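User: My collaborator sent over this chain with a note saying "see what the structure looks like." That's all I know about it. Can you take a look?
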Amino acid sequence: MTLSEHDLTKEFPQLSSRLKALDESDPKFHSAYTRYQEVDKEIIHFETEANCSDIHLEDLKKKRLQLKDKLYFMLTRS
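Assistant: Without extra context I'll predict from the sequence alone. Here is the result:
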């Protein structure tokens, strides 16, 4: 099974320039985006290298999804 990061620039290519602009100019967006990337890397770490409970891994995936939803909202609001 090949695992890959859930990079938002790949998931939302039409929003990549806005993502970069908000990451550089909006501290709240930057904080949420940084946290998203950290959670994503943690998930990959647990799926490939370390052991953790299924419940913990599921909780991390839910957190990543919540952050993704929040970031998408921030990216698409006017």
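A starting point for your reply to your collaborator: Residues 16-76 form one domain.
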